[in-house]
Amino acid sequence: MCYDVAVIGAGVTGAFAARELSRYNLKVALIEKCNDLAMGTSKANSAIVHSGFDAVPGTLKAILNVKGTAMMPETCKELNVPFKPIGSLLLAFSDEEMKTVKELYDRGVTNGVHGLEIIDSAKLHEMEPNVNPDAVGALWAPTAGIVCPYELTIAAAENAVVNGAEFMRNFAVSKIDYDGSVFTVSDGNREIKAKYIVNAAGVYCDEIAALIGDNSLHTIARKGEYMLCDKTVGNLVSHVLFQCPTIMGKGTLVTPTVDGNLLLGPTAIDIEGKEDVDTNADTLALILEKAQKSVPCVTTREVITSFAGLRAHLECDDFIIGKSGKNDKFINAAGIESPGLSSAPAVGIMIAEIIAEDAGAEKRADFNPVREAPVRFRHMTNEERKAIIAKNPAYGRIVCRCETITEGEIIDAIKAPAGARDVDGVKRRTRAGMGRCQGGFCGSKVVELLAEELGVEINEITKCGGNSKILYERTK
Amino acid sequence: MTKKITCVTCPMGCPITVEISDSGEIISVSGNTCPRGKTYAENEITHPQRSLATTVRVEGGVHNVVPCKSAGPLPKEKIFDCMEAINKARANAPVALGDVLVENVCGTGVNIVATNHCPAKI
Amino acid sequence: MLNYDIVVIGGGPAGMAAALKARECGIESILILERAETLGGILEQCIHTGFGLQYFGEELSGPEYADRFIKQVNEQKIEYKTDTMALEITGDNKVYAVNKTDGLLEIQAKAIILAMGCRERPRGALNIPGTRGSGVMSAGTAQKYVNIDGYMPGKKVVILGSGDIGLIMARRMTLEGAKVECVCELMPYSSGLTRNIVQCLDDFGIPLYLSCTVIDIHGKDRVTGVTIANVDENRKPIPGTERFIECDTLLLSVGLIPENELTRAVGIDLDRVTSGAVVDEYRETNHKGVFACGNVLHVHDLVDFVTYESQTAGEGAAMYVLGKKTDSDQVTTKGVGAVRYIVPQKINLNNEGDVKLYFRVGNTFKNATVKVKYNGEEIISRKRPRLAPGEMENVVITNKMLQTFSKDGVIEISVEV
User: Fold this and answer.
1) Residue of chain A nearest B58, judged by CA positions
2) For residue A422, which residues of chain C lie inside 8 Å, CB to CB?
3) Out of 3.10.580.10, 3.40.30.10, 3.50.50.60, 3.40.50.10490, which CATH number does the structure's domain C122-254 have?
4) Do domains C1-120+255-325 and C328-417 have the same CATH topology?
5) Which residues in chain B are contacts of C164 at CB distance < 8 A?
6) I need a labelling partner for C95 at 20 to 30 A (CA). Which of A54, A359, B56, C122 fits?
7) C-alpha dihedral sign at C154, C157, C161, C167
């Protein structure tokens, strides 16, 4: 069997590419080296849908950001992913920084961002009473918003699978051959054939491209560390708060998340290799210090976890999306760092259109753009709860106490198209284990449910694939 | 020679020093605040004892294991031998609290008894 | 909608003791809601012995201690629902709960007893940096895997925190064949019981490093080691003292937090130090008819004290239902200096008996004096050979003293060396 397209990398870019490709009469394989979707940059980033004022006009970043952000409300509606258009405020702490605000305002207008406004200190503090009194003004961008990046990725991939795409996990591509019409993609054990390849491998884009002799890319992994605070401080701010950007990134932000927590970060450090997602004590202290510049009342007392992600940075500082110079059936989607999440719906379309045009593919009449909404017991009214438990008693058993997640929701997450296969996968799909106890109570229950649904012993279950088994053998 | 022992008879945790002769006789006990400390220290030198709590494998139960304990104290030096014997034992569900799971473990004269119920898996 | 005189949330030692006492006081209509599959709470996984010395005068394992109460609950035909999670308490003492068989339950109660227990502090709360693979878990989670599920969560173990659960798990893992490399304690003293340090660590030659913490976790998919370092008096790592310890598992025993989500949501006043409700001597909160007892009120070191306290709450709830607990002027209690907190925080002046005040200190003391003052005047002075943060203390305010107190008076407890 030969696929029309093999998408390498199941992050937000790969997932949207697969979804958009599945609108056409194309057989799509979505290949992922890890045990789950959204395991790289897409699971650990700022979770911001940017309005689009900071990319240099005319770049792909600028064009696709504005287009992607405009699509986001509708896309999230189709995919049943919560999106909150809360808007962003870029804070200025000096007249010098107000100049930057003005520059970015102008840049945003050139990029086609709607609704931008420069506001003074009074208006700013009226909008955000907890902001540092020293802030002298801000750039208000009402089209910005927040979305859960892995939920968006998972939803897009699920939708692609429902529409016929195939998801293959634990497939770390190590070899690509081309016979003039068909690629053979192999991980050393398995191989699949495809007429087109989409290289959406994130920080590994350069290595995947090199497999066909395309050595034009050089990805730099730029690490960003974050701290996540408890929901009790999630309402400290009500907009995304940026600081003025530096050459390394957009500065430290303070933002609520769609789930009601407060997120602080990121840092920006270029690292050796592409795997280091350690968090460091010094950096975490630095994040706090910088976050306090925006919101002085933020403390570590409410921090529930910290994490780090890698951005796929290219020296050209722009996305590279298009046919490889080495092979025009090989489509690169490289350097997708911020605003990659915001741009993803538009990036998916761009990739699909390149391939559809080249292959002469037609749009399908039976494409279903809607991803069914997962059950979210915690958001239901009591009447809805009664009804759903009557239908399936598994929704009557709470597994995760902190986040009120039911057994039914966890089983759904495992059974879903491209469903969860490990504890972290369940966590990302349902939030079980994401609360205050961080899985202390429900972790072992989730392990049991995974074992039961997957038909294996509980000591086969991993935290996040690979060698991350949670249990060894029986005690006796 | 001298041996230092922390008394665990009460929360005071007195640091007790026991002086022992070459032939192993206790010459003196010091550091204790009360007579219970002296008895404790003497026992720790002559025949230290520990109670043991662990689990026994259950076949056909709702859980893989059932908790158990030694019905009385065991010689401290036999704890790991006893663990080995207990790890080899098997109980068939249902197990009731108080059931003897291993009789006279390692010849100590002490039984290993279940400390919880383990119903059979339906 | 169901109707009960008393709904008890939590079927562990606290909930069961409270329910049994309420029954003894004449309340027929009682319902216990338990989220686990069986009654017993966390005791079910605490298979070590050492429970019940105070209450039963004998040394029991956790499940045995629990079983004595489970038997009584059954004998007394007190109703309970297991596998049932309370979702919400309303302002008019209604409880919403959910389970597989009944679906969503709406229960009107006259009185509610909160007995939800506590949870362990997770890694995130400590903000330990490093990688995020498997092999890091709370000691209690490991305890469940070993003692209930019968699986080993690790073979080469480092334990951070010398609380009792950490110490108990050091012995437990060792008995089951694991190598416990060390126990690190951030503070210059252990918060665990001396007995546990001797019998769980010393017996097996497991080192206890005081003023030491884990500063980094290594390993991508699975933990391969940790870096530990000594800390200074401000609990900051001292450069140059870092050392790597190879291990596949890091167990955390770094404190317990009362589970007061339901309490907080209904707007009950919480004590910042205990993280539990502010209560009177019957453990009634500022929300009329809502009582709290056990580890949800403040973390106890001995289950026996949980039982005593819960009986008090059960009696209070029964009195409330029977209309015998009337409003009264109150005095408040206040820990001073090394006394971190006192429970109860309030005493009703119409109480006809003695009142025991439980408190905890923030430091270790030898040969100290516990002083109790009422409005600045000393009323009790008692020598204590030893005081430690890990061991709860108490003093009794006699009814005779109580009768001399007046509205809004303050009882202060302090420690003098």
Assistant:
1) A476
2) none
3) 3.50.50.60
4) no
5) none
6) C122
7) positive
Exposed/middle/buried for residue A460 (C-beta within 10 Å: 0-12, 13-18, 19+): middle
Q: Residue A75 corresponds to which amino acid? A: T
Query: Given this model, what pLDDT does residue A302 score?
Result: 81
User: In angstroms, what separates the C-alpha of B77 from chain A's closest C-alpha?
Assistant: 22
Question: Which of A459, A475, A476 should be substituted to probe chain B, the one whose Cβ sees the most B Cβ atoms within 10 Å?
Answer: A476
pLDDT grade for A379, boundaries at 50, 70 and 90: very high
- The percentage of chain C sitting over the pLDDT mark of 90, rounded to a whole number, equals 89
Does residue A170 carry a pLDDT above 90?
A: yes
Token representation of residue A114: 């709607």
Which of B53, B79, B117 has its CB closest to that of C49? Answer: B53
- Superfamily of structural domain C1-120+255-325: FAD/NAD(P)-binding domain (3.50.50.60)
Q: Quick one: CA dihedral C202, C204, C206, C207, positive or negative?
A: positive
Mutate to test the interface with A, among B63, B64, B84, B118 (most CBs of A within 10 A): B64
The Cα C310–Cα C23 span in angstroms is: 13
- Which pLDDT value is given to residue A248? 63
- CATH superfamily label, A2-42+150-218+317-359: FAD/NAD(P)-binding domain (3.50.50.60)
pLDDT digits 0-9 by tens, A435-475? 777 787 888 999 999 999 999 999 999 999 999 999 999 99
What does pTM read for this prediction?
A: 0.92
Q: Is A50 a catalytic residue?
A: yes
* Distance separating alpha carbons of residues A265 and A291, to the nearest angstrom: 7
CB atoms within 10 A of CB A360: 8
